[in-house]
Amino acid sequence: MNIHEHQAKAVLSEFGVAVPRGYPAFSVDEAVKAAEQLGGPVFVVKSQIHAGGRGKGRFEGLGPDAKGGVRVVKSVDDVRTNAQEMLGRVLVTHQTGPKGKQVNRLYIEEGAAIAKEFYLSLLVDRETSWVSVVASTEGGMDIETVAHDTPEKIVTFGIDPATGVWPFHGRTLSKALGLSGDLAKQAARLLGQLYTAFVAKDMAMLEVNPLIVTADDQLRVLDAKVSFDSNALYRHPEVVALRDESEEDPKEIEASKFDLSYIALDGEIGCMVNGAGLAMATMDIIKLYGAEPANFLDVGGGADEAKVTAAFKIIMADPNVKGILVNIFGGIARCDILANGVVNAVKQVGLTVPLVVRLEGTNAELGKKIINESGLNVIAANDLSDGAEKIVKAVRGLA
Ligand code: ADP
Ligand code: MG
Questions:
Q1: Which of 138, 207, 268, 389 is catalytic?
Q2: Are residues 54 and 154 in the same domain?
Q3: pLDDT band (50, 70, 90) for residue 398
Q4: 223 labelled binding-site residue
Q5: pLDDT in tens, 12-33
Q6: Same domain membership, residue 83 and residue 123
């Protein structure tokens, strides 16, 4: 689960991390009020969307010469005009994809005098099960570009969860960033605070880009991007409360209510599959036959009828879906239960596109009987490849 920059900074400051003063604003009036409270002389008007690269992003409808999604201004009036221009507009960055994201809230922050910009992030290293720290002197840039062009400028080290952060970790970080004296002390303190926050809140990733040294030698977190491990959210109701559903796909929100593993994609073939591996294989084979999957969906092993009905409705709600392929290999999941779920869902929402069903494994015969006797216009398939071929043909109007 992702949160906005201003929320990430609020979370980090609970752990003592020094961040610039700022206030979120949902309207032009709130932006002006925030600027008046900050007092200036320099303000930064920052678009809050769940994507990075905002500074270099482009607003739809403003032309290539307009400023990006992060703007440094010098008066309350300029905060007002920029807020007017940014709120409600779609911002396209290299992380949003071409569709962009609508800016519904801003963060009005005090301007910092930047002497140096660094990159610093914490993430879980799945190989070692430790928290990894990634640091670079090349701040404010896309870290993927730095990794590609100048990998020697990136320093990575792990923190053993059994011991946590030690002074030598702080020294490693300071060395990587070329800091000494009081700034080295600040870096060590910051690392301890970030690590404590990361572990306490079950973060999956915490990225500070840029981390800056100010003109008066203070280390400051100028941008913060945080995502949380969704499997640990049950332990953090205060984090769940930060969720901004307007940033998420409504179909994925609905799926999460039913504990379904669903990811919306851009294609035209809706897929309902049990098992993540089989779901991946189903997507691959749809591509092999020349079409694109509209979603990834794993209904899971213990799927009951209600869950399957919900899943089918979510697939049907996608206007891009031109055909549906149900591919079930019954093991713990029983084909008859899946079949009943599909029949129920179709009865409730109607079937307007071709449907191919492939059932195999536990209670497959019973499942096929339920589908055949339902009177639904279903195309039966014998195996995975047959199913993919049939649904692609049906969608192309050849079946
Ligand atoms: P993004 O990474 O999405 O582009 P950032 O928050 O990193 O957004 O802002 C982009 C750039 O804007 C930063 O690299 C920094 O140079 C500048 N910037 C951001 N916040 C401030 C601030 N409070 N004061 C001065 N400059 C800022
Ligand atoms: Mg940034």
A1: 207
A2: no
A3: low
A4: yes
A5: 999 999 999 999 999 999 999 9
A6: no
